[in-house]
Amino acid sequence: MLKNFLIALLLVFSSFAQASAEKILFIPHDNRPVSSQQPADVISQLGYEIISPPTEFLTQPDQLWAWFNENAHLADAAVVSSDALLYGGLIPSRSHEISADILSNRVQNFKILRDNNPNLNLYAFGSLMRTPSFGTPGDREEPAYYGQYGAQIFQLTALLDKNETSKLNSKEKMQLDTLQKEIPDEILNDWFSRREKNLSTTKKLLDLTRDDIINFFVIGRDDNAPLCQTHRENRQLLAYMENIPKIKAQSHAGIDEFAILLLTRAVNDLNCSLPFVNVQFNRGKGSKTIPHYSDEEIGQSIRDEIIIAGAMFVPKPERADFVLFVNSDPKGNTFELYNSVPPQVLTQKQQKYFARNAKNFAEMVENAVNNNLPVGIADIISANGADNFLMAQLYDKNLLFKLQSYGGWNTATNTSGFALSTGILAKKMSRHSIDRLLATRYLDDWAYQANVRQEIADELSKRPDGLAIYLNLGDHEPEIFKRENVLMHEFAVEHFPQWNSFVVSNPWHRMFECRIDFD
Q1: 265 and 119, same structural domain?
Q2: CA proximity to 393, closest of 377, 414, 415, 416
Q3: Between the CA atoms of 162, 168, 172 and 174, what dihedral angle is there, to the nearest 10 degrees?
Q4: pLDDT band at residue 223 using 50, 70 and 90 as cut-offs
Q5: Alpha-carbon distances, residue 216 vs 83, 246, 273 (angstroms)
Q6: What is the pLDDT of residues 356-414, one digit of tens each?
Q7: Are residues 224 and 321 in the same domain?
Q8: Given this model, what pLDDT does residue 15 score?
Q9: pLDDT on residue 18
């Protein structure tokens, strides 16, 4: 009788907990796993209900706004992409033909939403348009002409940027003049006018943040450099937001990490918590490293990410709720080991260099774990993918599942933002949830990016149409799907067999990213 009563009582409490679970509305900037599925998965492990729009709405701003207005009252907090709500996504923001009037009206929708939901914690993230250092013909992420003129446009804007911050020498002046003549006027007009329109719209979003209509707004600088158009525009933006504190708005070198950083902030705000974070760097240049695709030191980027996540930096690891260890190159380099077809082959000298560096860093991590510190790793030595030398050390030392978090995917700030956020939230998770998230990262960043993708890229490089397939799987997708799943499962069985029940796919029908779904 008592047992039946206790079971009934437990069911009542369980139903109440489910009914009262806090809800976070989440609008990503596209449907790539790292942008949407993976950040939502992290928050779901904490017991929050994630409310997200149908995927097809992400490219349709008007339908997305209608959905947002209909569902905002259900949520305790909202983390939303302004690029999706204004342009139809991150990539459309770089090549859209939307008028300034329409963009202005869409910005005003934030005011309407705030009037109807005065108590909603609203966090938004957007982007300055990126400035890739070169163009790739057929790349859908930039206007078509960038495939031909991308490198010249980048060089042109780097010189314009330098001319505004220092003086050009005579050779640089001649180069600037030549580039302005070589690039057709209609292309430069299109490229610069769209950027001006987007910059003006971003300033309007900052006005809303200043007026507390948006609680926190972060602007990304994706794929930029110390001298380029993105860096040039950011100087204007920083001057415009000079009177807005960093706890309200930031311009940050990155973009794909913003969803998880702001979701972490939403959780911390809902719990009225301020986690303490300490950061430790590998030997050598460490925090002074300026990684590829960034225009600032990684130490500053991570300090800013801590603020974005609603946490606080502390100088002593013993006082921290989480300690982030950053695997950087001692000389401050970023290596493009896993971004070429066919993959790069390391010399014996390079192998010794990486192995020595990994051994030193792994010992730092091992000592921290043995001292019962809550440790995570941001693996930024490569521009995309895990450091195989480090992962071998972690595996040999049985440290893989003694960490709180790991990140090794894509740019340095993508990596650090994901590892930082997951590590901060790990304190509120079960060990099983932490290990599940670690397994996702090891499968994606280590197994896929640094190994399986490279093996398939090497196989494709021997075919005349290999590069085309790599960039667009097309009719070859079933063949690639089968091959990569075989290789991924072989890798998992060897390194972490307890997490061998999954399927890997390529939702964007290209090799660059993958999706991991556990059975």
Answers
A1: yes
A2: 377
A3: 120
A4: confident
A5: 15, 9, 16
A6: 999 999 999 999 999 999 999 999 999 999 999 999 999 999 999 999 999 999 999 99
A7: no
A8: 37
A9: 38
Question: CA–CA separation, 157 vs 176, rounded Å?
Answer: 9
Give the other-Cβ count within 10 Å of 234's Cβ: 22
Residue with tokens 């300490």: 278
Residue 198, token pair as written in the block? 């987007």
Split at pLDDT 50, 70, 90, the class of 138 is confident
Binned at pLDDT 50, 70 and 90, residue 222 comes out as confident
* HEC per residue, 81-96: EHHHHHHCCCCHHHCC
Are residues 379 and 308 part of one domain? yes
What digits encode the pLDDT tens for the residues 158-190? 999 999 999 899 999 999 999 999 999 999 999
**DSSP three-state, residue 105:** helix
Structural contact between residues 146 and 139, judged by C-beta atoms closer than 8 angstroms: yes
Residue with tokens 């997200």: 52
Residue 509 within any structural domain of the chain: no
d(CA 489, CA 494): 9
- Confidence at residue 139, expressed as pLDDT on a 0 to 100 scale: 77
Closest of 3, 27, 34, 468 to residue 266, by C-alpha: 27
Residue 1 lies in a domain: no
Query: Is 292:245 a contact under the CB 8 Å cutoff?
Result: no
Q: Among positive and negative, which fits the CA dihedral 144, 148, 149, 150?
A: positive
The arithmetic mean of pLDDT across residues 212-239, rounded, is 94
Segments forming the whole domain that contains residue 299: 278-460
Tokens of 138: 């057929």
Do 291 and 374 belong together in one domain?
yes
Query: What's the rounded Cα separation, in Å, for the pair 330 and 417?
Result: 21
**What is the edge-to-edge ordering of all strands in the sheet holding 405-407?**
312-313, 276-281, 322-327, 375-379, 405-407
Looking up tokens 């070198």 gives 253
Residue 112: which CATH number? 3.40.50
In a domain, 293, yes or no: yes
Q: In this predicted structure, what is the pLDDT of residue 5?
A: 42
Contact of 182 with 145, CB cutoff 8 Å: no
How confident is the model at residue 430, as a pLDDT?
97
- CB under 8 Å to 464, separation ≥6 — which residues? none
Average pLDDT in the chain: 94
Contact (CB, 8 A) for 364 and 373: no
Q: Is the peptide bond before 291 cis (omega within 30 degrees of 0)?
A: no
Residue 162 neighbours by CB distance under 10 Å: 19
CA-based R_g, the chain, Å:
23
DSSP, collapsed to helix, strand or coil, labels residue 126 as strand
Predicted confidence at residue 415, as pLDDT, reads 97
The tally of domains found in the chain comes to 2
